[in-house]
Design a protein that fits this description.
Layout: H1 3-11, E1 20-25, H2 32-44, E2 49-54, H3 62-65, H4 70-85, E3 89-93, E4 102-103, E5 115-124, E6 129-130, E7 159-168, E8 173-181, E9 193-194, E10 201-210, E11 214-215, E12 222-224, H5 230-244, H6 247-255, E13 259-263, E14 276-278, H7 282-290, E15 303-304, E16 313-314, E17 317-318, H8 324-356, E18 360-363, E19 382-386, H9 394-406, E20 410-415, H10 426-438, E21 443-449, H11 485-498, E22 503-504, E23 508-511, H12 535-541, H13 556-560, E24 564-567, E25 593-596, H14 603-614, E26 619-622, E27 625-630, E28 635-639, H15 653-665, E29 669-672, H16 677-684, E30 690-692, E31 699-706, E32 709-716, E33 725-732, E34 736-740, E35 747-749, E36 753-756, E37 759-766, E38 771-777, E39 790-796, E40 798-808, E41 812-816, E42 824-828, E43 831-842, E44 858-868, E45 876-880, E46 889-893, E47 907-909, E48 917-926, H17 930-935, H18 945-948, E49 969-974
Parallel strand pairs: 1-2, 1-21, 2-3, 3-13, 8-17, 13-18, 18-19, 19-20, 20-21, 23-24, 23-25, 25-26, 26-29
Antiparallel strand pairs: 4-12, 5-10, 5-14, 6-9, 7-8, 7-10, 11-12, 15-16, 22-31, 27-28, 30-33, 31-32, 32-38, 33-37, 34-35, 34-38, 36-37, 39-49, 40-43, 40-44, 41-42, 44-48, 45-47, 45-49, 46-48
């Protein structure tokens, strides 16, 4: 690609680069007119695609409108037709709502339904005999509470899997050496057995039965499918092949090159006492893959996991510390086997089916269940993460960047879900997106969109909620800021276009294995004294913005501008991962070094690393690294000696020890602690392709290379806690440097670049929260330049303000008669806009202006005149708005067009619009709906889900938010 190509294509980025939307439909209730209107609105506002799903809509007739009904199938056809007609992507979900793959054609007793291993036990004294029927699971007993969606339906069948006895060695402790497998002695479901003569004994009977987890809304009852046995995906494929994908729908999919299936959260529940995901083939598969029987170890595998895998607490530990390592290895082998089966029996066949019908598979892989986080990456077409559960943390986004970049997968994020519905300014969401881009996420899927129209009786202004009022945000026409979405979506489209050019260039790959990833970071919002920490405070001032990354905790590489990401070491064993003597996966991320730091490492991976080191691989072995296990629980793990044992019970510890001892002596390997990694990389000649000349604690970067073009993304991520920073970045190669204006598409020479040997030094001054894209064109010579100075030409202190105040208007009732014997009705709340003339004002938040006040939300229009006697030839003129309190908006000067601005650094290039003499300046700034909704009592009815997770029921506490242009507004000349 040439710079001219880049400049031409980025001016108006194609629709596939625009942000996309998650669309919560009110089941199949929406009229055809509503569906078409919403898609047209989304397209008009610049969004590139719609992922649609059914959400429970109160007391409507679910049999008529729920997922799987004729109305839902009809609406799906409309959605696919209308998105395809506009060139938008369209994504189905693998069942109703979002939480898992589910079907109406199965029941919990069938092999295709999700299964669990449950347990019941008897306690026997020394020498005590028991006989007769083994205790069964009481399937009608109260079940364990879960915060995950769905409830347990009716289960009628259970199957005896195993019987095991163990000597009790204290509360929660068992003597591992005493365990005896009694399964073969059971006759049918009966057992005669006498406990040994020493100690108290516990007899465990393990039964498999369906989880019975349901999903709604559905025309009948949807049950979660089996992710581990092949029966589950076969049932999913059969349902979609036979029922959903009608000839008409297939024809539309064939016309849409971006039709997808989206598998969202793995929110699968077990309800019984065992807490183990299971299947009809698990025991046999475990034995074949791991080389030993899982049954004797079952007492150490049962667990409680009230909310996601990270919350796992095992019921029993071995009494003897010498057995603890063995038990940990067995636990690893169990979850490794689950991951194998998830890949082989769900993802791989489902993706193959979808490819046959012209669709791709995008998925939030692994997290939430005890599956290895990154190993499933190669099996899907797109890997998705999310901002909510991971708290929009850079280290969390790095977790799955490894497999995405190694295998050339689209890396996307579900973006914008919070617990602060309608409360926060637009800047908050822009900062989430900016953080994602720094990790190489190049597809933003906003969470989300809902039509204002919904069911009568439950739909109030500002509109149908969709994903409830407590767990999301809306990026649709109910927002005052939607007026400016075309400018905003184009800017995001330009950023995403730039960061999809060519191939990523990541300096370091970090080997990391995790089956219990902490995906509850975004819910860790309760302080040490029980106080509720607002989302915006946590995101803006805590964790990564308080020098606390979660997994790679030493910040030396980040401060130096050395980029890194994580992946499971077994991925290096794949035939499609290569090392060319300098880089790992040169056509992908091109890691110039790898890091091993966890205390366990697979022996085959270690041998593979040894072979690569002999060919020139740079390897850093890090002892003493600490990483997060659970933020809520305050639990971390320190790996005192890296690669000191194999993770599973494979008998290869001695073999691993010999390999790692050899590795530690090899000349291409450095052994250090976390704080010595940067020096080790420098010593190996892998100090970073976009190295900071001086360490900088404020900036994150991401690098792409496309032919002669190197694209650098830089982001000042301390948007709440720091001042402007100037960073100098040393880019490999020589050439001319240009900078992109994301809001206009202009690509202009960058002032502040110089050659330094075979590198180009780029100087960037970034305000807190500001992002920059610079392009190094190596096809031409370096043009040395100094950074510009800015001279204030004028200051605009007094403005005329008119506020367009948004409030509830008269709702509209919509009806639809499709000739099926009934009429569908929905209500569409309307917004009434009142113009409030505040007169001439000194810039201040609306709440502080007597003519506006604290109960107003909407759009403010500010007008002023700036007088410029003459314009300097060749100079650039910038209008610096100071602050808009995070509000999205636009600027128009004279007869010029509307220009958008960065909500963190609202500075607009007005050079082409400014004229000598008087110039009318019009600034429009939007707000959130918080202040108006607060005044209406909306939040008094909205539960605070962040507090609920601690067991405390409370409603949202809404404060008055600052809105509007507050300046100082200055016209600057760039000299």
């Amino acid at each position: 690609m040439t710079l001219d190509d880049f400049r031409r294509e980025i001016a108006d980025p194609a629709i596939e680069f625009r942000p996309e939307l998650r669309w919560w439909l009110a089941e199949g209730l929406h009229t055809d007119a509503t569906l078409r209107r919403e898609i047209e609105d989304a397209h008009r506002l610049g969004f590139g695609g719609m992922e649609f799903l059914a959400m429970d809509e109160g007391e409507i007739d679910h049999a008529r409108y729920g997922w799987g009904s004729e109305e839902w199938v009809h609406d799906s056809q409309i959605v696919v037709e209308e998105t395809t007609r506009r060139g938008m992507s369209v994504s189905f979900t693998s069942g109703t709502n979002w939480s898992n793959a589910n079907l109406p054609t199965i029941d919990p007793d069938q092999r295709a339904a999700a299964q669990e291993l449950d347990v019941v036990h008897e306690t026997l004294a020394a020498g005590q005999a028991r006989s007769g029927a083994l205790p069964r699971i009481d399937l009608e007993a109260p079940i364990a509470e879960t915060t995950l969606p769905g409830h347990r339906g009716t289960i009628t069948q259970q199957h005896l899997v195993a019987v095991v006895a163990a000597r009790v060695a204290g509360e929660g402790r068992l003597d591992a050496a005493s365990i005896v497998d009694l399964t073969a002695q059971a006759q049918g479901e009966s057992l005669d057995w006498t406990a040994p003569n020493e100690g108290e004994w516990r007899l465990f009977a393990y039964w498999m039965h369906g989880t019975g987890q349901t999903a709604s809304p559905s025309a009948s009852v949807n049950y979660t499918v089996n992710y581990l046995d092949r029966d589950g995906v076969d049932a999913v494929i059969a349902y979609w092949d036979d029922v959903v994908l009608t000839p008409a729908l297939r024809a539309e999919i064939a016309r849409n090159p971006r039709a997808q299936m989206y598998m969202d959260s793995l929110e699968l529940s077990t309800y019984g006492a065992g807490g183990m995901f299971w299947g009809f083939t698990i025991a046999d598969e475990f034995r074949e893959r791991r080389g030993y029987d899982i049954v004797p170890w079952l007492p150490f595998l049962t667990r409680d996991a009230p909310f996601m895998a990270v919350s796992t607490v095992y019921h029993h530990q071995p009494a003897d510390d010498t057995d603890r390592l063995t038990v940990e290895k067995v636990r690893f082998d169990y979850v490794r086997t689950l991951t194998d089966l998830y890949i082989e029996n769900m993802l791989r066949p489902f993706a193959a089916f979808l490819h046959d019908v012209g669709m791709t598979l995008r998925a939030e892989i692994s997290y939430g269940l005890p599956f290895e986080l990154t190993r499933p990456g190669p099996e899907v077409d797109g890997i998705e993460t999310e901002s909510l559960e991971f708290g929009a943390q850079i280290d969390a986004y790095r977790l799955m960047a490894g497999p995405a970049h190694l295998f050339g997968k689209q890396y996307s994020s579900e973006t914008g879900a919070t617990t602060r519905n309608h409360m926060l300014d637009h800047r908050f969401y822009d900062q989430i997106i900016a953080t994602q881009l720094a990790a190489g996420i190049t597809k933003t899927v906003l969470h989300g969109w809902a039509s204002p129209a919904g069911a009568e009786g439950v739909t109030e202004w500002p509109g149908h909620e969709g994903m409830w009022p407590m767990f999301s945000e809306r990026f649709d026409t109910r927002q005052p800021g939607s007026e400016f979405y075309p400018l905003w979506t184009a800017a995001i489209g330009r950023l995403q276009y730039a960061l999809r050019r060519g191939r990523p260039r990541i300096d370091v790959g970090i080997l990391r294995t995790d089956h219990f990833t902490d995906n509850l970071i975004g819910m860790a919002l309760i302080g040490p004294n029980g106080e509720r920490i607002p989302d915006e405070v946590a995101y803006g001032t805590m964790w990564m913005r308080d020098r606390q990354n979660h997994w790679w905790q030493d910040l030396g590489m980040q401060d130096a501008g050395i980029t890194y990401e994580f992946f499971d070491g077994s991925l290096l064993l794949r035939d499609d991962v290569t090392f060319d003597g300098d880089e790992v996966q040169p056509a992908g991320p091109g890691y110039r070094a790898l890091i091993v730091y966890q205390s366990t490492l697979d022996a085959d991976v270690a041998a593979h690393l040894r072979d690569w080191v002999q060919r020139g691989l740079r390897l850093v072995i890090v002892d003493g690294a600490r990483e997060l296990e659970s933020l809520m629980a305050g639990r971390h793990r320190t790996h005192e000696v890296a690669a000191s044992a194999t993770p599973g019970l494979d008998g290869r510890d001695d073999e691993l020890a010999a390999i790692t001892a050899e590795l530690r002596r090899m000349p291409g390997v450095r052994v250090t602690g976390p704080s010595g990694v940067v020096a080790a990389l420098d010593d190996l000649g892998a100090g970073g392709r976009a190295r900071f000349v001086d360490d900088d604690r404020h900036v994150l970067t991401h690098l792409r290379q496309d032919g002669d073009l190197t694209v650098l993304y830089a982001y000042h991520f301390l948007y709440e806690t720091a001042e402007t920073t100037t960073v100098r970045v040393a880019l490999d190669g020589e050439g001319a440097v240009h900078r992109l204006d994301p809001w206009t598409g202009a690509v202009r020479p960058h002032r502040g670049a110089r050659r330094d040997g075979d590198r180009t030094i780029v100087e960037l001054t970034l305000a807190p929260g500001e992002v920059a894209i610079v392009v190094l064109d190596r096809s031409t010579g370096v043009v040395d330049s100094t950074a510009p100075a800015h001279v204030e030409v004028a200051r605009l202190d007094v403005w005329r303000l008119v506020v367009e105040s948004w409030d509830a208007g008269e709702p509209e009732v919509l009806t639809e008669d499709r000739g099926l014997g009934y009429v569908s009705r929905e209500v569409r709340p309307a917004t009434a806009i009142t113009h409030m003339d505040a007169g001439d004002v000194d810039l201040a938040p609306w709440a502080q202006l007597d003519t506006v006040g604290p109960e107003v939300s909407g759009v403010g229009e500010y007008t002023a005149t700036v007088t410029v006697p003459d314009l300097a030839a060749g100079a650039r003129y910038l209008l610096d708005l100071g602050s808009t309190n995070g509000g999205l908006g636009s600027v128009r000067v004279g007869d010029g067009g509307e220009r958008g601005f960065d909500t963190a650094h609202p500075v607009v290039d007005v050079t082409d619009d400014l004229r000598p003499g008087d110039n009318l300046v019009v600034v429009r700034v939007s707000s959130s709906l918080n202040n108006r909704l607060r005044a209406r009592g909306y939040y008094e009815r909205v539960p605070d889900i962040g507090a609920q997770l601690t067991g405390e029921a409370r409603t949202q506490h809404a404060i008055v938010r600052d809105y509007g242009l507050v300046g100082p507004v200055r016209l600057l000349r760039e000299d």
